[in-house]
Amino acid sequence: MDKQHLRLILNGKSAGRSDVRAAVEAVRTMGHEVSVRVTFEAGDITRLAREALRDYQDQKIDTLVSGGGDGTLHEVVDAVLHSLPEGESPPSPLPCCRLAPPMISRGTFAWTLQISPPVSDLPPGQVPSRWI
To answer: What is the CATH number of domain 5-131?
Structure first.
């Protein structure tokens, strides 16, 4: 698989979690670039989503990732869709890696983003369909 540049908009409540940091590092170890943007206060998600849309061409962002719970996902998707001209689609995929319950494995993070994790890191019984 080609190496990707992922932009992760991460809910600030999750920024210090060791499992989240390990998951991001595992994806980087696979050779992918992960640029992390962390929220701190109200309005950050909208600002960071608009920044990602502006950076899409210059920084070659392949995938915009929402890291957090349902509220974070909703805000990211809403901000992206409301920032686009009418009738235009987002320039890249918008996957969500829900960071609740409180633990996320390196394999689950990579698997959710559809980039190839080591098979040993996959959740039991979960193999990406492209491997079947």
So the answer is: 3.40.50.10330
